[in-house]
Description:
The chain is an all-alpha fold. It is built from 2 helices and no strands.
Amino acid sequence: MPEPLRRFLADRSGATAIEYATIGAFVSILIYSATKFIGTKLSSTYLMPVVGNLT
């Protein structure tokens, strides 16, 4: 096996970046889901009674 190919296959420095990207994607999905859920709850709690009284 050629030396450059062997060094490339042995290099593990990119694994940390991939792990951080995966964690970041997971956290962003959690934040999006939480804000969507909370926004729906707040809308039905506060906005709908106001709209109901206006019509």
